[in-house]
């Protein structure tokens, strides 16, 4: 087993790579920020991103990241500020609207299923093709 070291994308510290782009400390910090945002939104539903950012001291970029990851969801219908990355319609959480998600799933499914190969058409048997090859050669 080899020791795979990488630098954390957030703080630049070296850490043993475990499939995540961030070190353990940065992941814990991010999780604490998520909990603060979640608790604030629980107590203050309908708060704007700027307000949540100001009160929790978590950057707006990070809050939008939580929304894009699907960890947070917009409850208020009037408060749409996320757009589907494919068609641009307003969404409450994630990256894509339900319609685009279904369309992409169907496209992936159709791309993943192997296409049936068409067998080459065999020439129809006629009286000439039923003859022996030698027979055809003699006529020429």
TrEMBL record:
Residue span of region Disordered: 109-140
Annotated Basic and acidic residues bias: 115-127
Keyword tags: Cell projection, Cilium, Flagellum
InterPro entries found in the cross-reference section: Flagellar_operon_YvyF (IPR022258)
NCBIfam families per the UniProt record, alphabetical: YvyF
Protein name: Flagellar operon protein TIGR03826
Species of the source: Tindallia californiensis
């Amino acid at each position: 087993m080899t020791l795979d070291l990488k630098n954390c994308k957030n703080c630049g510290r070296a850490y043993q790579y475990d499939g995540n782009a961030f070190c353990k400390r940065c992941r814990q910090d991010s999780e604490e920020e998520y909990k603060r945002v979640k608790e604030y939104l629980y107590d203050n539903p309908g708060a704007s991103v700027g307000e949540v950012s100001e009160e929790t001291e978590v950057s707006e970029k990070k809050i939008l990241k939580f929304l894009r990851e699907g960890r947070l969801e917009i409850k208020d219908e009037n408060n749409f500020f996320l757009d589907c990355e494919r068609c641009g319609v307003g969404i409450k959480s994630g990256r894509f609207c339900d319609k685009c998600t279904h369309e992409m799933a169907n496209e992936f499914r159709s791309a993943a299923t192997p296409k049936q190969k068409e067998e080459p058409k065999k020439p129809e048997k006629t009286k000439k093709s039923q003859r022996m090859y030698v027979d055809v050669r003699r006529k020429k």
